Amino acid sequence: MDASEFRRRGKEMIDYVADYLENIRERQPFPDVTPGYLRNLIPDHAPEEGEKYEEVFKDIERVIMPGVTHWHSPQFHAYFPTANSYPGIVADILSDAIGCIGFTWASSPACTELEVVMMDWLGKMLNLPEQFLSSSGGPGGGVIQSTASEATLVALLSARTMFIRKHIGPGDDPHRENAVMTKFVAYCSDQAHSSVERAGLIGGVPMRMLETDSKGALRGETLQLAIQRDKAAGLIPFFVCATLGTTPSCAFDNVLEVGKYAMSFNFNPHKWLKVNFDCSAMWVKDSRLLSDAFEVDPLYLKHENQGKMPDYRHWHIPLGRRFRSLKLWFVLRLYGIKGLQESIRKDVMLAHEFEAYIKSDERFEIFGEVVMGLVCFRLKGSNELNEKLLKLINDDRRIHIVPSKVKDTYFLRLAICASRTTSQDVRLAWNVTREITNGLMSSLKQ
Ligand SMILES: Cc1ncc(COP(=O)(O)O)c(C=O)c1O
Questions:
Q1: Among candidates 112, 81, 119, 98, which has minimal Cα distance to 328?
Q2: Which GO BP terms apply (predicted)?
């Protein structure tokens, strides 16, 4: 493909993408394919000679689309949202074209410098304490990780190093490091995302999943008791991960009790902030703790301006990193803070519309509280009844949702996911739910 064909094909692809997104409502949100469907649709080896572009393009609808779960369909209500916007896509095209690997400032200065400023913009939007911002002039600042899972792991590993250093002096027997580490213990709530438990597994430390209150929140007293118990047993508590918006039910840990003095903070603009995956924003109060844990310095990565700007390779696990701050820059400038607030408020309002439908039918109950864009609901009755309802709703294929369970109560979760979702789509989701419930109830009476 030469430049003139790229111009033509690129424009065609932009048209295809715009048509896909603008007409996505017409596609079934969850596909009908069965595992292994794709292998039969394409050859089992790469072509010897290059093919014609038309042949490849044709195969998007033949091979790919039948197996796509359409996360941006207004009838997709599963998991949590993943963001998608034209400004985000356009910026990613530019990022792909620049195609730099921004591991140090010198490897592509704009890649590092835009990220530093964008993380400050975003931190100010969230009203984060000054110490998290690089503009404060201190050792704090932000970095874009790929995922929240990575951010949690990075925080845990750097806390682990900090505590090893605290307990072992420079002249100590290195074997003592392992002995000290066997005493480390970390905490999160029993509602925390599986990635937090995994960070413990990868970091080789036990992660205590502490019991939450009736609203699914971790409370200070529970944490304090666990810490006291572990200290009394000779263990070394070194890490707590609090969650604001748990995956099962969007519960908020009580951070005023648990984490008044948090050293890091992470959230995913790639979920609700119109920045396409991947863009997981992480801030730390002291980036030296990251460098302490992750710095290795081969000659080929050194440069003469070291220390004047962050070298992000010390802030995360991979060496390579894409120019992801471009999509933040485009999105923040083109929507503005007000535009982003409006879109989040619209989703929250739609969630309350669905909540009102659920509350209008006495066969149903809301599980927990509707906060943000998630509605957790169930039929009054057994878990088995609700499992049947979920299966029937998803088998029907008009909408797609996933279930969850908190303290042995099984419920259905409806998240407002796509930016194109309207009141009409919420009404459709309710009509499907009610119609299927009517059928289920009458089949049970027979
Ligand atoms: C509360 C919470 N934490 C962490 C994650 C993991 O996110 P990621 O896919 O960015 O690792 C999720 C994913 O939905 C989540 O809901």
A1: 119
A2: amino acid metabolic process; carboxylic acid metabolic process; catecholamine biosynthetic process; serotonin biosynthetic process
So what's the pLDDT on residue 296? 85
Identify whether the C-beta of residue 329 lies closer than 8 Å to the C-beta of residue 118.
Answer: yes
Residues whose CB is less than 8 angstroms from the CB of residue 359 and which lie 6 or more positions away in sequence, other chains included: 366
What's the topology of domain 336-445? Aspartate Aminotransferase, domain 1 (3.90.1150)
Q: Ligand 1 centroid vs 320 CA: distance in angstroms?
A: 22
Q: Say whether pLDDT at 170 is over 80.
A: no
**104-148 pLDDT, tens per residue?**
999 999 999 999 999 999 999 999 999 999 999 999 999 999 999
Query: 3-69: which CATH topology?
Result: dopa decarboxylase, N-terminal domain (1.20.1340)
Tell me the average pLDDT across 26-33.
97
Distance 152 CA to ligand 1 centre (A): 10
Same fold, 3-69 and 92-330: no
Mutation pick for ligand 1 pocket among 82, 154, 247, 265 (CB with most ligand atoms within 8 Å): 247
The best mutation among 154, 195, 278, 317 to test binding of ligand 1, ranked by most ligand atoms within 8 Å of the C-beta, falls on: 195
- CATH number 3.40.640.10 given to 92-330: yes
Cα–Cα distances in Å, from 204 out to 198, 389, 397, 444? Answer: 10, 40, 42, 49
Question: CA-CA distance, 22 to 9, in Å (whole number)?
Answer: 20
Ligand 1 mean position to 167 CA, how many Å?
32
pLDDT above 80 (res 174): no
